[in-house]
Write a structure and sequence with these properties.
By secondary structure, the chain is an alpha+beta fold. The chain contains four helices and six strands, in the order ααβββαβαββ. Helix 2 runs parallel beside helix 3.
């Protein structure tokens, strides 16, 4: 259930990752393959997908991040990158896959943080192996 958001009342107490993690955990344990994962206020939402895809010549089970939306009043506060990191941390599959990176700053940040480029992907896509499955 999405509750209404009040900037004045919630800005100082809003924990995007704690609120987001609950729905992410629910999604990861559901039988459903894809849906929007969001925090309880609807401030941050991610279109996520459980998939199998070819990454640089290897069939790989992935948690895909297809789209991230952060409410305009909170953009630029690191919520998007924090959500990507949390999704990767909780990912039970071989890799986390971020598709169609249209934001060049985010693309470069992920590369600096150890994400790898998917060859032959346009727009650019990146992936990172999960620690439990080793390097792809």
């Amino acid at each position: 259930m999405v509750h209404s958001w009040n900037y004045e009342a919630n800005m100082t107490t809003y924990d995007p990752i704690g609120n987001f993690s609950t729905d992410l955990t629910r999604f990861l344990t559901e039988g459903i393959r894809n849906r929007y994962v969001m925090d309880e206020f609807g401030v941050c939402s991610v279109y996520a997908r459980k998939a199998r895809r070819m990454i640089n010549g290897k069939m790989t089970s992935t948690l895909d991040i297809a789209n991230i939306s952060v409410d305009g009043g909170l953009r630029g506060n690191g919520i998007g990158i924090a959500v990507i990191e949390k999704m990767h941390e909780l990912n039970p599959y071989q890799a986390t896959y971020v598709e169609s990176l249209l934001n060049e700053n985010l693309h470069q940040r992920l590369l600096r943080d150890g994400w790898e480029t998917v060859t032959d992907a346009y727009p650019p896509c990146v992936f990172k192996s999960t620690s439990t499955h080793g390097k792809l």
